[in-house]
Amino acid sequence: MIDLGLSKMALIGAVALIVIGPEKLPRVARTVGTLLGKAQRYVADVKAEVNRSMELDELKKMKETVESAARDVESSVSTAASDFEKDWQDATSTASTALAPPPSFPEYKHPKKKWRLKQGAMPNWYKARAGVRTKALSGAARVAKYRPHQL
Question: Where is this region: Disordered (predicted)?
Answer without folding.
Answer: 74-112
